[in-house]
Amino acid sequence: MKTNVLVVIGVGGIGMAIAKREGAGKIVLLADINEKMLALAAQDLRDTGYIVETQQTDVSSQSSVQTLVSKAASLGNVLQVVNTAGLSPNMASVEKLLQVDLLGAVYVLESFGNVMAQGGSGIHISSMAGHMIPALGAEIDKALAVTPANELLALPVLQPANVPNTTYAYCLSKRANHLRIQAESLKWAERGARVNSISPGIILTALAKHELDSPIGDGYRAMIAHSAIKRMGTVDEVATLAHYLLGPDSGFVTGSDFLMDGGVIAAMKLGKIAL
């Protein structure tokens, strides 16, 4: 009988928390663009008894993603896939954000959708930012949901004149993630697999610290102060939701986005927080 495989793309705080929560008894295939971080993360898991394989991967490269998919399929039943790879508005240009956070997500969803095991499940880690921008309209929503990967960045909505800064590029990418999850869930279903997204708010990670220490840090602190829960979330809380979505108890759940933001978006919609 083939061994089940858990693929985790992105070895930051959320990715590693999910790997530790879900990886026991499986082959854990870790992927990241940073080879040094990848090696350290793999050793951390091996030191506590996990079976770990690694693959350096750039999600913005279709061939790199396909190499990862091929390796995952060679190891056993690809039962669970978690994509946490992404850039924040203060980390990259508009072009790079769209390539990684939007197009990279599509490459992962399309490619892994072809190899998932029966009963398998996938998660894309998106962001509450996808809930911040106004409705785009049915025509744009459908285009972002179904346009083939090699044509996606040519859409009018993604042209420089319509994406004025990295913050909007980030929000737009995350909204596109939600739409793409809906469309891809129908394709994954053909293999008897499910796929959903999680949209965390401000989570206690190195990435969040980078944002808090940046010029937009005051905005982040305002979000926390005016939210319902009034604190940052933890990677373990994200992993707990991921555990549900990756397991059999969520068998009726697919094509959905789960907002877990401590109430930030609710406060924004009620005018308590200005974007």
Please provide a written account of the structure.
It is built from eleven helices and seven strands. It has 275 residues and is α/β, with parallel strands linked by helices. Strands 3-2-1-4-5-6-7 form a seven-stranded parallel beta sheet, sandwiched between helices. The mean pLDDT is 95.
* DSSP E strands, number: 7
Proportion of strand residues: 15-25%
Name of the level-1 CATH class: Alpha Beta
Helix content bin = 40-55%
**Whole-number total of structural domains:** 1
The ordered H/E elements are EHEHEHEHEHHHEHHHEH
Q: How many strands, which pairing sense, and closed or not: the largest β-sheet?
A: 7 strands, parallel
**Discrete helix count:** 11
Uncertain stretches of 5 or more adjacent residues: none
| CATH-derived topology | Rossmann fold
Please tell me how large the radius of gyration is: 18 Å
* Class computed from helices, strands and strand pairing: alpha/beta
